[in-house]
Amino acid sequence: MSAAELGRAGEQLAATYLERCGFMVLERNVHLRTGEIDIVALEGSTLTFIEVKTRRTLVTGVPQAAVTPTKLRRLRTLVGTYLMDSSPPHRDIRIDVVAVLAHADGTYAIEHLRGVC
């Protein structure tokens, strides 16, 4: 499985996980001028922007470690752009990270970090 395929599989697993947790997935792979938001979802009345990180091994660290302060700044900018362009009717917003670790035996582990910034 290529890195791109692994990323797509991780995003699908994350979307399924979020739906099972009661989120309503509104959009996936939202392309904006300066980047992409992996998942936009509603949890109750909170509009949630979710960054998905998927890894096969822990050689380079846990998946969520890839969400660096620089990446968080970029995500905040993307969320601002999304809000300006879309003007959604939600007052509460949040940025989450879903980390997916794909094991060689086909199983996976998911960790959901809420309100990372």
Walk me through this protein's architecture.
With 117 residues, the protein is α+β, with helices and mostly antiparallel strands. The chain has a single domain, classed as 3-Layer(aba) Sandwich (Trna Endonuclease, Chain: A, domain 1). Helices cover 31% and strands 38% of the residues. It is built from 2 helices and 5 strands. It has a 5-stranded mixed beta sheet with strand order 1-2-3-4-5, sandwiched between helices. Strand 3, helix 2 and strand 4 form a beta-alpha-beta unit. The longest helix is centred in the N-terminal third of the chain and has 18 residues. The radius of gyration is 14 Å and the shape is globular. The protein starts with a helix and ends with a strand. The mean pLDDT is 89.
